[in-house]
Automatic annotation (TrEMBL):
PANTHER family: TRANSTHYRETIN-LIKE FAMILY PROTEIN, TRANSTHYRETIN-LIKE FAMILY PROTEIN-RELATED. Keywords: Secreted, Signal. Its main location: secreted. It is found in: Secreted. This is Uncharacterized protein. GO terms for cellular component: cell surface; extracellular region.
Length: 203
């Protein structure tokens, strides 16, 4: 009987320790920002009606069996604004997050006609779905929390005023703003741990 109580106590302690570890690895995060595309006239067009999704990112060993977990989805408003939030935990490490952008290609959209991004135009011209030849989508991702230094202490609970853009990008030179075509067309974001273009390895 005494051995039974000792075993029960050990099991209870292990469960308590496990729950503490899981709780310690849990993170709540918020992403607020805007989505724009530059035209040939250097004008910044808000990307309206675009699906922006928040995912928990699985890297390395975890990615063998665990896919990225969808946590939140937001459709951008007339100003290209998006707001995302979510919570996730991992047992072995602190979770990290990424955003994905899915654009329904629409030739009648004012901002899509004006947008000069090469990669967006390419995907919209090639991505027709077999069963719906008229329906095309372009997909992009950004590793907001990819920190080249590898320092997990830099992770934040809130990322505000993310500026995510397609097409031309702003370059500050001698105190003046210049606009240059990005060497890597597609989605670029500033305001997170990874500025400019940080995509998933498969993209």
């Amino acid at each position: 009987k005494g051995e039974y109580h000792v075993m029960l106590l050990l099991v209870s302690l292990l469960l308590l320790l496990s729950s503490s570890l899981v709780e310690a690895r849990g993170r709540n995060v918020e992403f607020n920002g805007t989505l724009h595309c530059y035209g040939d006239d250097y004008k910044r067009y808000p990307m309206t009606g675009v699906h922006v999704a928040l995912f928990e990112e699985d890297r390395g060993f975890d990615s063998w069996w665990d896919e990225h977990d969808l946590l939140d989805v937001y459709v951008t408003d007339e100003n290209g604004t998006f707001n995302l939030e979510g919570y996730h935990y991992e047992f072995w490490h602190s979770p990290t997050f990424l955003i994905k952008v899915e654009i329904e290609c629409d030739e009648t959209s004012e901002w899509q006609r004006a947008c000069n991004d090469v990669e967006l135009k390419k995907q919209c011209s090639e991505s027709a779905m077999p069963e719906l030849s008229h329906y095309k989508v372009a997909k992009f991702s950004h590793l907001v929390e990819y920190d080249p230094s590898g320092n997990n202490d830099n992770y934040r609970m809130r990322y505000e005023q993310l500026e995510c853009e397609f097409g031309w990008r702003k370059v500050y030179h001698g105190g003046n703003i210049e606009y240059k075509q990005d060497y890597y067309p597609g989605l670029s974001c500033t305001g997170g741990l990874c500025d400019l273009r940080c995509t998933l390895p498969s993209e």
